[in-house]
Design a protein that fits this description.
single chain, 248 residues, alpha/beta, TIM Barrel, eight-stranded parallel barrel, 9 strands, 36% helix, 18% strand
Length: 248
């Protein structure tokens, strides 16, 4: 049997969405006390340019607000309560990073688009400024689906790493060789995909091109164990304690 090339790192996906309200400070405080490597969060921009920790471009699913995130100021967003959050409100990236300072857990920040496929102007610089302010830029990863946005993060430098994410349909359309061609042309050290698209042969081909591999979507024991057996570089999961237990 081929041994995995590395010990798989674990990230709490949206802070651990099976266990705590996603992208809430309670989730990140809990993550900071776990035996894992990274805490993944999502950021959109407020109308005044702050980095807002929330997954969707709209407010309805995870908060008591309505409308687009970018239509609200940071102060307005800070007053919106999270659904099921016990009074907890929408955090800014600066708030999330405070929960990790002093722990061994590094941030993994996914930079989202505006919900219509357009990057937020200046959001990469704002994210890096917040990482600098917290003093953890060199430990942090920046990830995202928009290749030019991730290329901007690579060019600005000073990060722990950058990962280009691909939807499953995009990965299948490009194929493994096409994915490698795009990733290497931009200088991305790692790609991130849904766990369902990977097998041993695909992983071997990606690794032979010098690319790291991360996944999301492995949230139950069979898929988590399969990713650990493949020896992927990082597993972002909604159930981090389960992944930690399976990793041993």
């Amino acid at each position: 049997m081929t041994m995995p090339p590395c010990r798989t790192a674990i990230a709490s996906h949206r802070g651990g969405a099976f266990l705590w309200p996603e992208n809430g400070l309670a989730a990140f405080r809990a993550t900071a006390g776990l035996a894992l490597e990274q805490a993944e969060c999502d950021v959109h921009a407020s109308s005044d340019g702050e980095a807002v920790v929330i997954h969707d471009a709209t407010l309805e699913r995870t908060t008591e607000g309505r409308g687009r995130v970018v239509a609200r100021t940071a102060d307005e967003l800070r007053r919106l309560r999270l659904r099921g959050g016990g009074g907890e409100t929408v955090p800014m990236l600066a708030d999330m990073l405070v929960t990790l300072v002093g722990s061994k857990v590094a941030p993994r920040v996914e930079i989202k688009d505006d919900g219509q496929g357009r990057p937020y102007p200046g959001l990469v610089n704002r994210v890096l400024a917040e990482l600098d302010r917290a003093g953890i830029r060199r430990q942090a990863w920046v990830i995202g689906f928009d290749a030019p946005t991730m290329a901007e993060a690579v060019a600005l430098g000073g990060l722990g790493g950058v990962a280009w994410l691909l939807e499953s349909a995009t990965f299948r359309a490009l194929g493994v060789r096409g994915t490698i061609a795009v990733a290497t042309s931009y200088g991305f050290p790692e790609i991130g995909v849904h766990e369902s698209v990977l097998d041993a042969e695909t992983c071997a081909t990606l690794r032979s091109a010098g690319l790291g591999i991360s996944v999301w979507g492995a949230n139950h024991a069979p898929s988590i164990q399969r990713m650990l057996d493949l020896g992927i570089d990082l597993l972002a999961t909604d159930d981090p304690p389960l992944a930690i237990a399976l990793r041993g």
